[in-house]
Amino acid sequence: xxxxxxxxxxxxxxxxxxxxxxxxxxxxxxxxxxxxxxxxxxxxxxxxxxxxxxxxxxxxxxxxxxxxxxxxxxxxxxxxxxxxxxxxxxxxxxxxxxxxxxxxxxxxx
Amino acid sequence: xxxxxxxxxxxxxxxxxxxxxxxxxxxxxxxxxxxxxxxxxxxxxxxxxxxxxxxxxxxxxxxxxxxxxxxxxxxxxxxxxxxxxxxxxxxxxxxxxxxxxxxxxxxxx
DNA sequence: TACCGGTACATAGCAATGCTGAATACCGCC
DNA sequence: GGCGGTATTCAGCATTGCTATGTACCGGTA
Lengths: 109, 109
Known about the structure:
The structure is a homodimer of 109-residue chains. Chain A is 62% helix and 13% strand. With 109 residues, chain A is α+β, with helices and mostly antiparallel strands. In chain A, a hairpin with a 7-residue loop joins β2 and β3. The radius of gyration of chain A is 16 Å and the shape is globular. Chain B binds a DNA duplex (30 and 30 nucleotides) through α1, α3 and α4.
């Protein structure tokens, strides 16, 4: 994608990752691969890891180190209660924005 | 709104303003008032002006100074062809993101 | 006159977030 | 030993919205 997508991801990528973790626990490399698979072709490797560090520091996830057969140990993230609350608020914010944008897209105000 | 909305507006506020200008020409103060009316209660005055300066520098809008009865002259912005192209690309980017998020919202929790 | 509120625009410095680019480390296979 | 895939980390940068403040024009009013 382009610069447009980059800017739009600010504020939404966190929600996307939290939503992924709401379905099941996952580790950074896996999440990046999943995103690329979904069409977010240019998501930078480092971006996801930095985001994971942030949401860990904010207490939205629990972390467990799990040995891997094919490389260094994985850091598996699980969404906790606080994370679920934050995700819910994310959906509320996004819904508001989404509705306004749909309105504009359809035909004006 | 909160920090969440602030971050989410990065990358979308520009599109919102372009979409407004696609309907009809407008000036900064007017746009800010409209946004506040639509529920974007905490949009900062300066934010819109800075954004307008940016999209003018990028050549998305034409500007005309119009005297006002109630204060300093208004800078009325009109979307030009380049701006319309950019807006279309914005909608494509947003649609992509929106679809992915809807998917996550539905299938997730 | 002097002041206030509403209209209208501008800007310097800050905070948050994604990207670039590079480094580190583990493993199997040629 | 070297290569490629797996897996994480970090320093420095660009972009963008917010805070705070300043400028300017006008009408009403005390």
